[in-house]
Amino acid sequence: MAKTVQRMNRFVRRGILGALAGSAASTPLLFLTITRGAELAIVLVAGSIYSACVPPTRGAYADNIMAAASLGIPLWGITSILLLPLLSDNHMAMAAVDIQAQFAPLVGWILCGALLGAFLQSFSEVAETLYGAEAQPSSLPTTNLTRIVVLGGGFGGMKAAQCLEQELAGSVSISLVSDTNALLFTPMLAEVAGSSLEPSHISVPLRSTLRLTHFVRGRVTGVDLEKRVIVLDGAGATEPRRELPYDHVVFALGAVSNYLGLENVERMAFDFKTLLDAIRIRNHIIEMFERADRQTDPMIRRQLLTFVIAGGGFAGVELAGALNDFAHGIFPDYHNLNIEELCVTLVHSRDRILPELSETLATYALEKMKERGVVFRLGTRLVDAQPGLVTLSDGQIPAETLVWTAGTAPNPLIKTLDLATTPRGAIVVDSTLAVKNHAGAWALGDCAAVIDSETKKPCPPTAQFALREATTIARNISATLKGSHVRDFHFRSLGALCVVGHQTACAELTVPFVPGRSLRFSGLLAWLIWRGIYVAKLPGLERKIRVLIAWTLELFFPRDIIQTIDLGGKDIHPWRS
Amino acid sequence: MAKLIVASQVVLVGIAGGLLQASVLHSPLLSGALLGAGFSLVFSLVFSKRASSAGAGLIWGLSAALLFWFLLLATSMLKLGTHDSATMLDHARGRFQQLAAYLVCMGTPVGLALGVLGGSLQDESRPRFHRSRAIVAGGLAGIASGLIFGHWMWQGGFFPLIAGLSGFHSQAMQVALQFCVAFLIGATFGLLFQRDIRGYGSCMGWGLGYTICCWFGGPLTLFPLAQRMPLNWSMDAAANLFGALVGFILYGLILGLVYATFDRAWVRLFIESDPINREPDGPGFRLFRSLEWGGLAGLAGGIVSSPFMFAAHVLTSVAGVDTHLSILTGLVVHLLVSTLIGMSYGVLFRDEASNLAMAGAWGWVFGLIWWYAGPLTLLPLILTGEIDWRVSAASALLPSLLGHLIYGACTGCLFYVFERTYTHKQMLDPRMSARELRRRRPIGTPAPALWFFAMGMGVVIPLLLA
Prior knowledge:
The structure holds two protein chains of two kinds.
Chain A: H1 2-7, H2 10-25, H3 27-32, H4 37-53, H5 61-89, H6 96-101, H7 103-131, E1 146-151, H8 155-168, E2 172-178, E3 182-184, H9 189-193, E4 203-205, H10 206-209, E5 214-217, E6 220-224, E7 229-232, E8 242-245, E9 248-251, E10 255-257, H11 263-268, H12 275-294, H13 298-304, E11 306-310, H14 314-330, E12 343-348, H15 359-371, E13 374-378, E14 382-386, E15 389-392, E16 395-398, E17 401-404, E18 408-410, E19 427-428, E20 441-443, E21 448-449, H16 463-482, E22 495-501, E23 504-510, E24 518-523, H17 524-537, H18 541-556
Parallel strand pairs in A: 1-2, 1-9, 2-5, 9-20, 11-12, 11-17, 12-13, 19-21
Antiparallel strand pairs in A: 3-4, 6-7, 7-8, 10-18, 14-15, 15-16, 22-23, 23-24
Helix pairs in contact in A: 2-4, 2-7, 4-5, 5-7, 8-16, 12-13
Chain B: H1 2-25, H2 29-47, H3 54-80, H4 85-94, H5 96-119, H6 131-156, H7 160-166, H8 171-193, H9 200-226, H10 235-240, H11 242-271, H12 287-311, E1 317-318, E2 321-322, H13 327-348, H14 356-384, H15 391-396, H16 398-426, H17 430-439, H18 447-465
Antiparallel strand pairs in B: 1-2
């Protein structure tokens, strides 16, 4: 008997105790109501349900007496006002006079409730004394969990970890490795370079966002696919090299700038991939203005105030627009400078910018930016860069500033791994995003060559595709662990948005359920759409509020020209002192 | 030994209370003293661990006195030897002055005494008490509530309740006195209940209970004494002051809501803003989820309660006013309003329930609050521009009270299910599980006493006085 009670499900045990307490507590009803079996049955059921809902606590007589007494009032209503009149007279006693006539049963139910609470508490304590505490639910195992490691803290990596948390929380161990501790919201990176937003506004801390994921800040130096181990670097004697075993690994390593073999350009140009790059670009713009302000030679001044951006894709165009607005905006603070000495030049190898958009919108963007003072050198390539001089295939531009956005390549770590890759260096994956010939390995985003399972076309390396790939991978890992069916990846792009200058943008949005059709917007409306969509997608309510406040302040106050201190690593551009 | 001393002191207070109630009710003093001694002895035995402060003791004392009255009422009903409902109801009405006596002379002083004397013996793991926060937040809440409510009080001519006692003829002085009293009520509210209140909803519940107690202590007791008139706790006197009761209840709800707002603002600005006390989440993180869950729960509550509202003829008339709405239109309006009110439940009562029974109980209190605030006050005001707080108006609305209680319970339980499903996953993170445990209302607070007192008084008084 004792063992039976000890092993009994805790809700069953509580229900039995509640029914016993209910039967003992029904005495007041015998005297204050016209006894019906239904009322007594309701007391038993109510007692069982109440007891099942309330975990037993030693000494809680007062709590149970009062709580159960208050339960008596609605029970009175359900029984004496609704159920019993309905059963006997086919209508509820809902008139005020009828309700008042049930006052005596109300007293009975209240006292019955109080007794129920008292008896339940004493029965629970007796049961605990005789048979021990009720059986507790088995807790989730904390050892021998399946280990899932996500490499990369960008859009794809973070989304994969979030989806894995939702699908498998508590039943697996999830780790995320990233060399930065925050997700960078890259669509707004140009806003930081152009001093519209602060760096922290577009970064979301990974530790705070991923509640059930073990975050590891570190740089991956190798992956042993046979032993299933991730190798992380150490930072000196205090931080040793570390190995992270895995059962499933998700490669979300992203891409790096591809300088196409131009070593001088790689040494001279600013990158535009990280937050530090955006901060450096902004600081450098201000530095050039400060130097130009005290420079007496007009040729050198012009050289200092010429900013060259290589690459006419989204990143290059948005950066050119942001830098152009920023440079023009801070001009009034520099009294010795002539506006005609300022020149923002965008160099692009093709005949039109923004190949991802339609020709109409690309032409609109070009014209608008020209109106605002941006100079375009189309159909020409960057071939070399020297201190103070940028060499194109058809000429030269004297300039102290060069920003490279003209090409990307998958993370070079992938080349060191024994994985099938494309000539470009992206990991080859099948339609379910699993790495071929390596069970438990998955890849997404810029570092993977993803083919859409329906269109059979390569998926572009954009954030919206990376997010959907991450969701698919999480579901497929979950399906693999549960032994169910994995899904192929398919996603139809929602569209593209590009800001080209102050309150001016281009937007091309796909029409739902109508393949091949899209809606095009330009100008202020597109700019509002751009801001609305991206602030909605920015993770975290706090970040949204900060960005909205910053954008509102920008309407009334000029942009900041304070140079922030760059505490980053060694200076890779020796000619900038 | 210390506990024994406290218990004996409480019994002395009980005896004094018993003598007082016996003298008011013109019953034998010896039986009154014995009654008081018995009540206070049982009270200190059963409730000593729970009466951890003056406010907790007060609520436990009031609820114990109410339960005691029901017990004696049942005993006397049995002695009648009849099951005739009208006779039993008249008998209960005749005992109304006993109810007032037990609450004022025994429940209140005994509860306060045990709370004050016994509270000092409690362990220090209780929440920390901030006196300045209680007085400032409570006083401001009292004044703000007085401002909000003053317009109605002025329209209803209730100012003379307090201002008429002072003998001031100037309206400005009367208003000033009213606000001084409002400050006092708010400050005492904060001092008594700061430790017990966790959220907006529970604060409104405590306001409801506190002002019901104030109605017994104020218009029924102190005001006649201040006017050198004999105490009259009869049912007729109470029925004449029913409008004041509803006014007190609404004032208590507003007081609770405003106090919670000021108190939360104080905590946010001066305590939680300290980096040492930083929580993993910001304040707005769960607001939208609470609105969503509350809306869904309210809709379900509206669906479940609609048959009862239909049977009570509420769907085609609103607050007793025939609106000529068709049943279908009335149902749609009812469900829409239920959803919106459910969203308010989500915001006001989140984190109050740690099990389904508590969720149901808070839901009943919520339903009761909306019965007083909605059909009895706001709806007549919106539809006719006038408030009718007479007993007859409340009597006409009694059928919808049950529907409101059922709606509230259903909303509360379903909201708890949604909330628990979400927090269950959060609990896997040790940072969040610690935060969730801090947020939840623990066992041992006077919440069960509040449920019983608020529900009991909120339902019984309209029944008896109508």
